Amino acid sequence: MDFLKAILFGIIEGITEWMPVSSTAHLMILNKILPLNVSKEFFDLFDVVIQLGAILALVIVFFNKIWPFGESKHPLGKGILKIVKKDKFFLWIKIMIACIPVILFELFLEDLFTFINEDNEMKFIAIALIAVGILFIVVELLIRGKEPKISSTRQITYLQALIIGMAQLIAAVFPGVSRSGATIIAALLMGISRSTATEFTFEVAIPVMFGASLMKVLKFSGAVVFSEIMILLLGCISAFIVSLFMIRFVLDYIKKNTFTIFGIYRILIGLIILLLLA
Protein backbone atom coordinates (compact mmCIF):
# COMPACT_ATOMS: atom_id res chain seq x y z
CA MET A 1 0.00 0.00 0.00
CA ASP A 2 2.84 2.42 0.78
CA PHE A 3 4.18 1.99 -2.76
CA LEU A 4 0.78 2.97 -4.18
CA LYS A 5 0.60 5.88 -1.73
CA ALA A 6 4.07 7.02 -2.84
CA ILE A 7 2.84 7.15 -6.45
CA LEU A 8 -0.19 9.19 -5.33
CA PHE A 9 2.09 11.56 -3.40
CA GLY A 10 4.18 11.97 -6.55
CA ILE A 11 1.08 12.77 -8.61
CA ILE A 12 -0.03 15.42 -6.11
CA GLU A 13 3.51 16.86 -6.05
CA GLY A 14 3.60 16.96 -9.85
CA ILE A 15 0.26 18.81 -9.97
CA THR A 16 0.66 21.28 -7.11
CA GLU A 17 4.37 22.14 -7.44
CA TRP A 18 3.67 24.25 -10.53
CA MET A 19 0.61 26.05 -9.23
CA PRO A 20 0.86 28.70 -6.48
CA VAL A 21 -1.14 26.59 -4.03
CA SER A 22 1.70 25.12 -1.88
CA SER A 23 2.73 21.59 -2.76
CA THR A 24 4.08 21.16 0.79
CA ALA A 25 0.64 21.93 2.23
CA HIS A 26 -1.04 19.42 -0.06
CA LEU A 27 1.48 16.68 0.74
CA MET A 28 0.98 17.29 4.47
CA ILE A 29 -2.80 17.18 4.06
CA LEU A 30 -2.55 13.98 2.04
CA ASN A 31 -0.32 12.46 4.71
CA LYS A 32 -3.02 13.18 7.29
CA ILE A 33 -5.62 11.41 5.15
CA LEU A 34 -3.45 8.55 3.81
CA PRO A 35 -0.38 8.49 6.03
CA LEU A 36 2.75 6.75 4.79
CA ASN A 37 3.91 4.06 7.18
CA VAL A 38 7.25 5.81 7.78
CA SER A 39 8.91 7.85 10.52
CA LYS A 40 8.34 11.61 10.83
CA GLU A 41 12.01 12.15 9.99
CA PHE A 42 11.78 10.10 6.80
CA PHE A 43 8.56 11.84 5.72
CA ASP A 44 10.28 15.22 6.09
CA LEU A 45 13.01 13.84 3.80
CA PHE A 46 10.45 12.40 1.37
CA ASP A 47 8.52 15.70 1.32
CA VAL A 48 11.58 17.51 -0.08
CA VAL A 49 13.39 14.83 -2.11
CA ILE A 50 10.22 13.98 -4.06
CA GLN A 51 10.65 17.41 -5.65
CA LEU A 52 13.66 16.11 -7.58
CA GLY A 53 11.38 14.34 -10.03
CA ALA A 54 9.41 17.54 -10.58
CA ILE A 55 12.58 19.59 -11.04
CA LEU A 56 14.05 17.11 -13.54
CA ALA A 57 10.89 17.54 -15.62
CA LEU A 58 11.32 21.33 -15.40
CA VAL A 59 14.93 21.09 -16.63
CA ILE A 60 13.75 19.08 -19.65
CA VAL A 61 10.88 21.45 -20.49
CA PHE A 62 13.01 24.57 -19.96
CA PHE A 63 16.25 23.20 -21.43
CA ASN A 64 16.35 25.57 -24.40
CA LYS A 65 15.50 28.52 -22.17
CA ILE A 66 18.25 27.92 -19.60
CA TRP A 67 21.10 26.02 -21.31
CA PRO A 68 23.85 28.66 -21.69
CA PHE A 69 26.19 26.82 -24.08
CA GLY A 70 26.13 26.51 -27.87
CA GLU A 71 26.32 28.60 -31.00
CA SER A 72 24.81 32.05 -30.64
CA LYS A 73 24.43 35.25 -32.64
CA HIS A 74 25.24 37.08 -29.42
CA PRO A 75 28.02 35.17 -27.61
CA LEU A 76 29.48 36.37 -24.34
CA GLY A 77 32.89 37.02 -25.89
CA LYS A 78 35.73 35.51 -27.91
CA GLY A 79 37.59 32.24 -27.51
CA ILE A 80 35.89 29.85 -25.12
CA LEU A 81 33.28 32.53 -24.40
CA LYS A 82 32.03 32.22 -27.99
CA ILE A 83 30.05 29.13 -26.96
CA VAL A 84 28.41 30.95 -24.03
CA LYS A 85 25.09 32.60 -24.89
CA LYS A 86 25.06 36.12 -23.44
CA ASP A 87 21.33 36.24 -22.64
CA LYS A 88 21.39 32.86 -20.87
CA PHE A 89 24.56 33.81 -18.97
CA PHE A 90 22.96 36.94 -17.51
CA LEU A 91 19.73 35.05 -16.84
CA TRP A 92 21.70 32.65 -14.64
CA ILE A 93 23.25 35.58 -12.77
CA LYS A 94 19.73 36.82 -11.99
CA ILE A 95 18.69 33.31 -10.94
CA MET A 96 21.66 32.98 -8.58
CA ILE A 97 21.00 36.44 -7.11
CA ALA A 98 17.43 35.32 -6.40
CA CYS A 99 18.86 32.24 -4.62
CA ILE A 100 21.09 34.21 -2.22
CA PRO A 101 18.41 34.96 0.44
CA VAL A 102 17.33 31.30 0.62
CA ILE A 103 20.93 30.07 0.81
CA LEU A 104 21.70 32.43 3.71
CA PHE A 105 18.48 31.41 5.44
CA GLU A 106 19.19 27.68 5.11
CA LEU A 107 22.76 28.06 6.36
CA PHE A 108 22.33 30.50 9.24
CA LEU A 109 18.71 31.20 10.18
CA GLU A 110 16.53 28.13 9.65
CA ASP A 111 17.15 26.68 13.13
CA LEU A 112 15.93 29.92 14.74
CA PHE A 113 12.38 29.43 13.46
CA THR A 114 11.04 26.63 15.61
CA PHE A 115 7.61 28.03 16.56
CA ILE A 116 5.86 25.79 14.02
CA ASN A 117 5.65 22.18 15.14
CA GLU A 118 3.66 19.02 14.50
CA ASP A 119 0.88 20.19 16.82
CA ASN A 120 0.17 23.54 15.17
CA GLU A 121 1.48 23.19 11.60
CA MET A 122 -1.93 22.45 10.05
CA LYS A 123 -3.38 25.61 11.58
CA PHE A 124 -0.46 27.65 10.21
CA ILE A 125 -0.92 26.00 6.80
CA ALA A 126 -4.63 26.84 6.74
CA ILE A 127 -4.01 30.48 7.69
CA ALA A 128 -1.20 30.79 5.12
CA LEU A 129 -3.39 29.29 2.39
CA ILE A 130 -6.18 31.78 3.12
CA ALA A 131 -3.93 34.82 3.58
CA VAL A 132 -1.99 34.32 0.35
CA GLY A 133 -5.21 33.43 -1.48
CA ILE A 134 -6.72 36.77 -0.45
CA LEU A 135 -3.48 38.51 -1.44
CA PHE A 136 -3.63 36.97 -4.92
CA ILE A 137 -7.15 38.29 -5.42
CA VAL A 138 -6.20 41.76 -4.13
CA VAL A 139 -3.10 41.94 -6.33
CA GLU A 140 -5.08 40.88 -9.40
CA LEU A 141 -7.58 43.68 -8.68
CA LEU A 142 -4.72 46.18 -8.33
CA ILE A 143 -3.10 45.27 -11.66
CA ARG A 144 -6.31 44.69 -13.63
CA GLY A 145 -6.28 46.67 -16.85
CA LYS A 146 -2.66 47.76 -16.44
CA GLU A 147 -0.03 46.95 -19.02
CA PRO A 148 2.95 45.17 -17.41
CA LYS A 149 6.23 47.07 -17.50
CA ILE A 150 8.25 43.89 -17.96
CA SER A 151 7.27 41.11 -20.36
CA SER A 152 10.53 39.15 -20.63
CA THR A 153 13.03 37.68 -18.17
CA ARG A 154 15.71 39.71 -19.99
CA GLN A 155 14.07 42.88 -18.67
CA ILE A 156 14.11 41.76 -15.03
CA THR A 157 16.73 43.79 -13.15
CA TYR A 158 19.19 42.40 -10.63
CA LEU A 159 17.40 44.28 -7.83
CA GLN A 160 14.06 42.80 -8.86
CA ALA A 161 15.65 39.34 -8.93
CA LEU A 162 16.88 39.90 -5.36
CA ILE A 163 13.44 41.06 -4.19
CA ILE A 164 11.84 37.99 -5.79
CA GLY A 165 14.44 35.86 -3.99
CA MET A 166 13.65 37.54 -0.67
CA ALA A 167 9.96 36.76 -1.15
CA GLN A 168 10.87 33.07 -0.99
CA LEU A 169 11.88 33.53 2.66
CA ILE A 170 8.22 33.91 3.64
CA ALA A 171 7.51 30.48 2.21
CA ALA A 172 10.63 29.08 3.87
CA VAL A 173 9.35 30.16 7.29
CA PHE A 174 5.61 29.52 6.92
CA PRO A 175 4.43 26.22 5.38
CA GLY A 176 1.43 26.75 3.16
CA VAL A 177 2.57 30.09 1.75
CA SER A 178 3.99 28.50 -1.44
CA ARG A 179 7.38 29.48 -2.78
CA SER A 180 5.96 30.14 -6.23
CA GLY A 181 3.01 32.01 -4.73
CA ALA A 182 5.25 34.41 -2.80
CA THR A 183 7.61 35.04 -5.72
CA ILE A 184 4.84 35.52 -8.28
CA ILE A 185 3.04 38.04 -6.06
CA ALA A 186 6.29 39.98 -5.56
CA ALA A 187 6.91 39.96 -9.32
CA LEU A 188 3.36 41.11 -10.17
CA LEU A 189 3.62 44.01 -7.73
CA MET A 190 6.81 45.14 -9.51
CA GLY A 191 5.03 45.30 -12.86
CA ILE A 192 6.25 41.98 -14.26
CA SER A 193 3.77 40.19 -16.50
CA ARG A 194 2.05 37.04 -15.28
CA SER A 195 3.74 34.75 -17.79
CA THR A 196 7.20 36.25 -17.16
CA ALA A 197 6.71 36.08 -13.39
CA THR A 198 5.74 32.41 -13.68
CA GLU A 199 8.62 31.58 -16.02
CA PHE A 200 11.24 33.26 -13.80
CA THR A 201 9.77 31.60 -10.71
CA PHE A 202 10.14 28.21 -12.38
CA GLU A 203 13.72 28.99 -13.41
CA VAL A 204 14.67 30.03 -9.88
CA ALA A 205 13.12 26.80 -8.60
CA ILE A 206 15.80 24.71 -10.32
CA PRO A 207 18.78 25.56 -8.06
CA VAL A 208 16.59 26.26 -5.00
CA MET A 209 14.85 22.89 -5.04
CA PHE A 210 17.96 20.94 -6.00
CA GLY A 211 19.78 22.66 -3.13
CA ALA A 212 16.95 22.05 -0.65
CA SER A 213 16.88 18.35 -1.53
CA LEU A 214 20.65 18.07 -1.17
CA MET A 215 20.62 19.84 2.21
CA LYS A 216 17.81 17.60 3.47
CA VAL A 217 19.69 14.46 2.39
CA LEU A 218 22.91 15.66 4.06
CA LYS A 219 21.07 16.50 7.29
CA PHE A 220 19.19 13.19 7.39
CA SER A 221 20.74 11.04 10.10
CA GLY A 222 18.44 8.03 10.07
CA ALA A 223 18.88 4.70 8.32
CA VAL A 224 16.96 4.10 5.08
CA VAL A 225 15.71 0.60 4.29
CA PHE A 226 15.01 -0.79 0.80
CA SER A 227 11.25 -0.17 1.02
CA GLU A 228 11.88 3.51 1.83
CA ILE A 229 14.25 3.83 -1.13
CA MET A 230 11.47 2.42 -3.34
CA ILE A 231 9.02 4.93 -1.86
CA LEU A 232 11.40 7.78 -2.77
CA LEU A 233 11.93 6.44 -6.30
CA LEU A 234 8.23 5.88 -6.99
CA GLY A 235 7.36 9.32 -5.66
CA CYS A 236 10.05 10.98 -7.80
CA ILE A 237 9.11 9.08 -10.97
CA SER A 238 5.40 9.84 -10.72
CA ALA A 239 6.15 13.51 -9.88
CA PHE A 240 8.41 13.65 -12.96
CA ILE A 241 5.80 12.24 -15.36
CA VAL A 242 2.95 14.43 -14.11
CA SER A 243 5.17 17.54 -14.03
CA LEU A 244 6.00 17.18 -17.74
CA PHE A 245 2.35 17.89 -18.51
CA MET A 246 1.58 20.34 -15.67
CA ILE A 247 4.44 22.75 -16.39
CA ARG A 248 3.26 23.27 -19.95
CA PHE A 249 -0.38 23.47 -18.83
CA VAL A 250 0.28 26.19 -16.23
CA LEU A 251 2.45 28.24 -18.61
CA ASP A 252 -0.25 28.09 -21.31
CA TYR A 253 -3.06 28.79 -18.82
CA ILE A 254 -1.48 31.88 -17.31
CA LYS A 255 -0.90 33.47 -20.73
CA LYS A 256 -4.67 33.91 -21.08
CA ASN A 257 -5.92 33.95 -17.48
CA THR A 258 -5.28 35.55 -14.09
CA PHE A 259 -4.21 34.01 -10.78
CA THR A 260 -7.61 34.72 -9.20
CA ILE A 261 -8.80 31.10 -9.49
CA PHE A 262 -5.76 29.97 -7.51
CA GLY A 263 -6.55 32.53 -4.82
CA ILE A 264 -10.14 31.27 -4.53
CA TYR A 265 -8.93 27.66 -4.40
CA ARG A 266 -6.44 28.47 -1.62
CA ILE A 267 -9.12 30.18 0.46
CA LEU A 268 -11.53 27.26 0.11
CA ILE A 269 -8.89 24.65 1.06
CA GLY A 270 -7.75 26.77 4.00
CA LEU A 271 -11.32 27.17 5.29
CA ILE A 272 -11.96 23.41 4.97
CA ILE A 273 -8.84 22.69 7.04
CA LEU A 274 -9.91 25.17 9.75
CA LEU A 275 -13.39 23.60 9.87
CA LEU A 276 -11.89 20.12 10.26
CA LEU A 277 -9.59 21.37 13.02
CA ALA A 278 -12.42 23.07 14.91
Descriptive labels:
about 280 residues, mainly alpha
In short:
The protein is mainly alpha-helical and 278 residues long. 72% of the residues lie in helices and 0% in strands. It has helices spanning 2-16, 23-33, 40-49, 51-61, 63-66, 86-109, 121-143, 158-173, 179-189, 194-219, 226-256, 260-277.
Structure in words:
The protein is mostly helical. It has one domain (2-277). It has 12 helices and no strands. It has helices at residues 2-16, 23-33, 40-49, 51-61, 63-66, 86-109, 121-143, 158-173, 179-189, 194-219, 226-256, 260-277. α6 (86-109) crosses α10 (194-219). The longest helix is centred in the last third of the chain and has 31 residues, at 226-256. The chain is globular. The two termini are 30 Å apart. The relative contact order is 0.21. The mean pLDDT is 93.
Poorly predicted residue ranges: none
Helix count equals 12
User: Could you give the count of β-strands?
Assistant: 0
End-to-end Cα distance: 30 Å
- What is the makeup of the main sheet? none
Strand content: under 5%
Shape: globular
What's the domain count? 1
Assign a percent range to the helix content.
over 70%
Structural class: mainly alpha
- The helix-strand sequence is HHHHHHHHHHHH
* CA gyration radius, whole angstroms: 19 Å
Q: What topology emerges from the helices and strands here?
A:
Blueprint: H1 2-16, H2 23-33, H3 40-49, H4 51-61, H5 63-66, H6 86-109, H7 121-143, H8 158-173, H9 179-189, H10 194-219, H11 226-256, H12 260-277
Helix pairs in contact: 1-2, 1-11, 3-10, 4-10, 4-11, 6-8, 6-10, 7-9, 7-12, 8-9, 9-10
